């Protein structure tokens, strides 16, 4: 087994790959190798044995092979039990299942033997339960991991059995009319061939212009499911069929497919045929390598990736390679510079893995009728039994379904290398001497090197002759897998079971390398803890949609003009860049010109990108005009739901939302007509008035509404002035159609009506902190009209600017009359989610750029300085509006800081054993494994982990990445990765926790609302804190929204979180600190000096250079021993512990929580303002504002932005002093940007005065304490008849 990698995870994944492709001898060798690595009681070893036994058992059930049954029984006796591995109930159940296939003479005796062994082990009840689950679910026949041979192209795939369901009801509304010719969408010129690729994928759907109403009205559910399956899986089959057809056509007319003038499909068929032969030859060589006694380097390398090369049939492996390589080098790059080799080979490896997963899903017959499966697994006993036996071979330690990044890169490099060898194109050129036309064969792909940012990087580029061919006919990619579904999504029943019918995706969006979070998610799924999340995702996914034909027709007309219209950018944005200033001008003029150039280019490229993406959306909308479609959803690590279809979904911008309707309509009713009118006022932008005022607004503009609906592109075009013009046009049309009826309340309306939360993050903070004043600002308490926190902040900013203008501030004078709700909205909204000061400045500047393009651009008055000024006032205004929320944010931050600087009891025990010279227990027999990343046991590895009210575990993924170099067929490649063994990123853990926690509450509220809406029969969709339903159901949904919020916050959420932290991090040790000039700090320093004197440690060069970390771990073990002795039941040991003097004891005797120094990490709070030194609250004592830069204090913006920690190394001494870390920003939302160097110069010009005393950093003294958490802040007001 010398050809096996030492990386333990790769060994497990290679084992699984060998079992999947039927290489049982090599799989047996891998398990024997694991026997040499693991100790007999290691869970990883037992998982490997069970995987092997499971595969053999399934093959025996399928084939009845008696020889294989004897081999399995011999394995059980010799390799499993004979080596000391203890079987589990799963092992016994699988052995009984296989033994039931024995001949009649031996069956009864063999079965009795394994039942007796299970009974002797005390597992007979569990074994029989699992055996029954096998028979009940059909896992034995359906869930084998073996790859079913693919049908050849000449074999036709028979259709699935149709489900005898009635066609879905299609409401009869004004928009249902006979189809007419639908114009093509005007193509936007763009780099690459993504648009043409999308159009080829959409061609899999029937052309809507060629359909009659009966074509789509009479489809059954079964027919739609079969069409969806075909849409997901036909990428490879359709591509190969097209290549073969084009090649045959060219040969019939006497054209060589290798010529540059032939079609791209014909050339690809030639490559395809050759690559199949090469792949088969590689598989043959890998079998020979296994049997070679003396293996060469190429043999050893081949055995690393050979099992994965067999994971697909050679024809599919070839097609995946060709399609992915061509797509990467054409669509992703779009020019002749090429792409990084690492990007291409990783994409090929990813594509192979995804196709392998999809094929396994298709071959899993138990999922063919997923409705029965979903119903069958509702019971907890059946679900748990099935999870143990048939959870896609997922173990908690090794997720075989997701290959290691190194494996995918190696496999991709092998396939790309072979493709580069065989893919040729005939190119004609003129001989420079004879002037004759010469034809020569050239490679299609070139592997070269370029210098990027000073580093030599391998790149892959296409031959220019092929690039020319691609411009006329690009390749089809797997985009069809990510389009909206035309059948109802599969219900979620497991970590990778749900959503698409043929395409497997995880339910939680977790990075492949984040094994820590993945284990939590898999365990929660198997234990049934994610059941409510699964149910909520199913509700979101089963909501049927359709395209609003009226809005589409209008949008297509204006789109095809190529001009700017209603948030649609022009096809050719103005490209007159500003002229360069004369060389004689002052230096500042050129800097200003360069800044203008950059801003103009960013604006121009933004318009181009927006136009290109809207082109994609219109193409999708056109293809789905007559379809009922669905958006499958999954969640991010915080529990927020997102649709899986990226091009067209209801989370898009105004133009995308305006195109969408519910597929099923409901009568308006009187209440619904009222809400439709209010909704129209909302999308117009008149959404902060009272309801009666909004209703009157709609009535006052009835003439404009009729004109907009009947003549949208003529007349006054009133709807174009709306804040969301396309949604306004859709509402105008629905309202007109309703009012045209004798009884408008009977109109069947399909328009979704939105109910948006008022800055939901602030709502949750106000409820958590019992902040009545803040609650009134975000509509948690009733009022005469809706409160608007954005308008409130804008008014505060206006007042401050007016005050400063009177005092002569030139910047304030330039801003008078220019502050609006729109300018402050994004910053207020994202402030609660941790936006940095510089991020806020950028947000404000974007608004100033859009609203006031002619704003002065001088040194004392310009948009950058204005943005800084406004952002400061926004933060100041926010800080004055919320009080209780501040305490919650600081408490969350403090908890995260302590967790991220703590070590687990296992680490403490490990370090203690090392210090004592005791052999450290391990599940492995050898100390180190070749290829295993270094595990720094002394590093801080504790992520912040919590459980949402719906029992979903949330694991913050922020860890420091490690680099690793691997050798491939083409070159060495460096890859970055992170695992649970890597240290946590403290700054990101701390800064991201408060916003992530609020996001998890927001997601919980949405799911609670979705579950109740579905229970009472409402159609439901959501965009985080914006909930959609039919107009007639809005009142019902509003009651459900309020009840769900009350239900959440009626519980002590923060108290429960505190209790969870105390239980989860019990016995952890925390590296705390106190100010060095405090009495406690002085005592600890004196104790350390005495320790050195008592131990007679000489201050030599060696001791001066000794790492501080080493002393930290020594003192940690000392403190741990003291705590262990104090907790002992032996009086003598307790007495010994009481006599010990440590920094922890000094702290216990002389101080409390308030004496601890605050976290070094700069945090962003509501308003970004730290409490003043006069504040007597708990957070004031913790912050010690007179001893450090106030966290988030914008009056100290210059110091806060530029704090880097220079010049502090001198304070670090043998006495154990340390200094604050450099603050690092973390982006928790797309709009939350990191600080950049431009901030310093701008803030200097703002003349923000900073107290010199506050600028000075102070040294801190570290000490070890048991990990405890600060007291939960008390609510500002705990009595309210409304929400808290």
Automatic annotation (TrEMBL):
Record field: compositional bias (Polar residues): 141-159
Family that this chain belongs to:
Belongs to the phage and mitochondrial RNA polymerase family.
Question: Does this entry carry the keyword Transcription?
Answer: yes
Q: Which organism is it from?
A: Lepraria neglecta
Region Disordered, as annotated, extends over 141-160
Q: What is the name attached to this protein's record?
A: DNA-directed RNA polymerase
Which GO molecular function terms does the record list? DNA-directed RNA polymerase activity; mitochondrial promoter sequence-specific DNA binding
Q: Please list which residues make up the signal peptide.
A: none
**What is the protein's major site of localization?**
mitochondrion
Q: Where in the cell is it found?
A: Mitochondrion
**Annotated InterPro entries:** DNA-dir_RNA_pol_helix_hairp_sf, DNA-dir_Rpol_C_phage-type, DNA-dir_Rpol_phage-type, DNA/RNA_pol_sf, RNA_POL_N_sf, RPOL_N
Q: Which UniProt keywords apply?
A: DNA-directed RNA polymerase, Mitochondrion, Nucleotidyltransferase, Transcription, Transferase, Transit peptide
- Domain named DNA-directed RNA polymerase N-terminal is located at 226-542
Query: Is Transcription found in the keyword set?
Result: yes
Record's catalysed reaction(s): RNA(n) + a ribonucleoside 5'-triphosphate = RNA(n+1) + diphosphate
Tell me the GO BP annotations in alphabetical order: mitochondrial transcription
PANTHER family attached to this UniProt entry: DNA-DIRECTED RNA POLYMERASE, MITOCHONDRIAL (PTHR10102)
One cellular component GO annotation, for this chain's record?
mitochondrial DNA-directed RNA polymerase complex
Query: What's a Pfam family in this record?
Result: RPOL_N
* UniProt EC number: 2.7.7.6
Instruction: Describe the function of this protein.
Output: DNA-dependent RNA polymerase catalyzes the transcription of DNA into RNA using the four ribonucleoside triphosphates as substrates.
């Amino acid at each position: 087994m010398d050809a096996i990698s030492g990386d333990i995870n790769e060994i497990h994944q290679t084992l699984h790959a060998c079992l999947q492709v039927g290489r049982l001898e090599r799989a047996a060798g891998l398990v024997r190798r694991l026997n040499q690595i693991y100790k007999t009681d290691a869970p990883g070893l037992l998982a490997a044995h069970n995987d092997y036994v499971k595969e053999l058992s399934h093959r025996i059930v399928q084939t009845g092979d008696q020889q294989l049954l004897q081999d399995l029984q011999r394995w059980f006796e010799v390799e499993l039990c004979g080596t000391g591995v203890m079987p589990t109930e799963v092992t016994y159940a699988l052995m009984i299942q296989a033994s039931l296939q024995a001949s009649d003479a031996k069956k009864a005796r063999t079965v009795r033997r394994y039942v007796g062994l299970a009974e002797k082990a005390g597992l007979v009840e569990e074994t029989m339960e699992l055996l029954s689950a096998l028979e009940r679910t059909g896992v034995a026949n359906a869930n084998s991991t073996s790859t079913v041979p693919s049908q050849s192209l000449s074999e036709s795939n028979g259709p699935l059995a149709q489900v005898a369901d009635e066609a879905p009801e299609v409401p009869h509304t004004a928009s249902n009319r006979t189809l007419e010719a639908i114009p093509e969408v005007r193509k936007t010129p763009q780099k690459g061939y993504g648009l043409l690729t999308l159009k080829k994928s959409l061609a899999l759907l029937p052309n809507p212009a060629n359909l009659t109403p009966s074509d789509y009205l009479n489809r059954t559910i079964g027919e739609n499911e079969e069409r969806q399956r075909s849409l997901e899986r036909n990428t490879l089959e359709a591509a190969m069929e097209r290549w073969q057809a084009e090649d045959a056509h060219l040969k019939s007319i006497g054209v060589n497919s290798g010529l540059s003038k032939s079609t791209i499909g014909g050339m690809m068929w030639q490559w395809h045929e050759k690559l199949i032969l090469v792949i088969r030859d590689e598989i043959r060589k890998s079998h020979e390598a296994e049997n070679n006694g003396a293996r060469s380097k190429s043999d050893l390398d081949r055995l690393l990736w050979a099992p994965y090369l067999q994971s697909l049939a050679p024809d599919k492996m070839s097609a995946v390679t060709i399609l992915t390589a061509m797509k990467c080098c054409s669509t992703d790059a779009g020019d002749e510079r090429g792409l990084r080799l690492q990007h291409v080979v990783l994409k090929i490896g990813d594509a192979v893995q995804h196709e392998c997963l999809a094929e396994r899903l298709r071959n899993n017959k138990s999922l063919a009728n997923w409705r029965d499966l979903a119903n069958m697994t509702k019971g907890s006993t059946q679900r748990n039994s099935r999870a143990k036996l048939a959870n896609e071979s997922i173990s908690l330690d090794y997720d075989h379904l997701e290959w290691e990044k190194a494996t995918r890169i190696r496999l991709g490099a092998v396939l790309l290398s072979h493709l580069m060898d065989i893919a040729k194109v005939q190119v004609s050129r003129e001989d420079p001497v004879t002037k004759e036309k010469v034809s020569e064969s050239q490679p299609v792909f070139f592997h070269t090197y370029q210098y990027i940012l000073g580093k030599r990087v391998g790149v892959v580029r296409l031959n220019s002759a092929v690039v020319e061919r691609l411009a006329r006919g690009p390749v089809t990619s797997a985009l069809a897998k990510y389009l909206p579904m035309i059948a109802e999504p599969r219900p979620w029943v497991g970590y990778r079971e749900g959503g698409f019918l043929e395409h497997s995706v995880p339910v939680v969006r977790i990075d492949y390398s984040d094994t820590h979070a993945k284990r939590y998610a898999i365990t929660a799924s198997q234990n049934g803890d994610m059941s409510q999340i699964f149910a909520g995702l199913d509700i979101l996914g089963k909501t049927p949609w359709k395209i609003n034909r009226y809005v589409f027709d209008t949008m297509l007309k204006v789109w095809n003009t190529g001009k700017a219209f209603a948030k649609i950018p022009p096809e050719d944005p103005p490209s007159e860049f500003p002229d360069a200033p004369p060389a004689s001008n002052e230096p500042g003029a050129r800097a200003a010109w360069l800044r203008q150039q950059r801003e103009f280019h960013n604006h121009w490229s933004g318009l181009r990108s927006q136009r290109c993406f809207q082109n994609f959306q219109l193409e999708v909308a056109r293809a789905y005009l007559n379809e009922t479609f669905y958006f499958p959803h999954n969640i991010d690590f915080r529990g927020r739901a997102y649709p899986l279809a990226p091009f067209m979904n209801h989370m898009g911008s105004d133009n995308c939302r305006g195109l969408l309707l519910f597929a099923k309509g409901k009568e308006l009713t009187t209440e619904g007509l009222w809400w439709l009118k209010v909704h129209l006022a909302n999308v117009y932008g008149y959404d902060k008035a009272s309801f009666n005022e909004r209703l009157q607004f709609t009535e006052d503009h009835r003439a404009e509404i009729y004109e907009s609906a009947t003549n949208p592109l003529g007349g006054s075009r009133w709807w174009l002035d709306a804040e969301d013009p396309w949604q306004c046009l859709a509402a105008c049309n629905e309202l007109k159609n309703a009012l045209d009826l004798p009884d408008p309340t009977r109109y069947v309306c399909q328009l979704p009506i939105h109910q948006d939360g008022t800055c939901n993050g602030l709502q949750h903070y106000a409820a958590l902190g019992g902040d009545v004043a803040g609650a009134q600002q975000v509509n948690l308490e009733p009022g005469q009209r809706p409160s608007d926190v954005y308008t409130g902040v804008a008014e505060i900013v206006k007042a401050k600017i007016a005050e400063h203008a009177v005092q002569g501030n030139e910047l304030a004078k330039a801003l008078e009359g220019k502050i609006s709700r729109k300018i402050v909205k994004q910053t207020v909204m994202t402030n609660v989610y941790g936006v940095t000061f510089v991020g806020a400045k950028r947000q404000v500047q974007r608004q100033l750029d859009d609203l006031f393009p002619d704003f002065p651009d001088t040194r004392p008055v310009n948009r950058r300085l204005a943005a800084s000024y406004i952002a400061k006032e926004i933060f100041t205004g926010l800080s004055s509006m919320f009080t209780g929320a501040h305490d919650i944010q600081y408490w969350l931050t403090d908890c995260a800081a302590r967790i991220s600087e703590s070590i687990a009891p296992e680490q403490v025990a490990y370090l203690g054993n090392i210090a004592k010279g005791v052999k450290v227990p391990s599940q492995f027999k050898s100390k180190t494994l070749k290829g295993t990343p270094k595990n720094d046991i002394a590093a801080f590895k504790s992520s912040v982990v919590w459980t949402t009210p719906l029992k979903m575990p949330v694991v913050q993924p922020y860890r420091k990445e490690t680099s690793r170099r691997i050798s491939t067929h083409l070159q060495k490649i460096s890859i970055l990765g992170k695992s649970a063994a890597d240290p946590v990123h403290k700054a990101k853990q701390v800064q991201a926790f408060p916003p992530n926690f609020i996001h998890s509450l927001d997601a919980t509220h949405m799911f609670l609302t979705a579950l109740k809406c579905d229970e009472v029969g409402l159609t439901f969709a959501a965009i985080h804190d914006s909930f959609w339903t039919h107009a007639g159901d809005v009142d019902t949904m509003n009651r459900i929204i309020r009840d769900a919020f009350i239900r959440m916050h009626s519980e002590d959420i923060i108290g429960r979180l505190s209790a969870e932290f105390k239980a989860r991090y019990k016995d952890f040790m925390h590296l705390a600190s106190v100010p060095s000039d405090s009495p406690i700090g002085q005592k600890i320093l004196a104790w350390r000096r005495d320790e050195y004197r008592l131990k007679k440690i000489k201050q030599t060069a060696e001791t001066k250079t000794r790492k501080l970390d080493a002393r930290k771990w020594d003192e940690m073990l000392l403190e741990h021993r003291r705590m262990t002795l104090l907790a002992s039941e032996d009086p003598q040991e307790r007495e010994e512990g009481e006599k010990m003097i440590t920094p922890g004891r000094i702290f216990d005797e002389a101080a409390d929580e308030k004496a601890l120094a605050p976290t070094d990490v700069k945090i962003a709070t509501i308003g970004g303002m730290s409490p003043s030194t006069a504040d007597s609250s708990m957070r004031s004592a913790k912050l010690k504002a007179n001893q450090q830069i106030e966290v988030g204090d914008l009056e100290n913006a210059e110091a806060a932005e530029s704090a880097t920690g220079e010049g502090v190394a001198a304070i670090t001494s043998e006495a154990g002093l340390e200094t604050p870390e450099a603050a690092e920003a973390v982006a928790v939302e797309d709009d939350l940007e990191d600080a950049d160097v431009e901030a310093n110069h701008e803030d200097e010009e703002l003349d923000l005065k900073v107290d010199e005393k506050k600028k000075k950093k102070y040294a801190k003294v570290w000490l070890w304490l048991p990990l405890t958490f600060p007291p939960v802040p008390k609510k500002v007001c705990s009595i309210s008849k409304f929400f808290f």
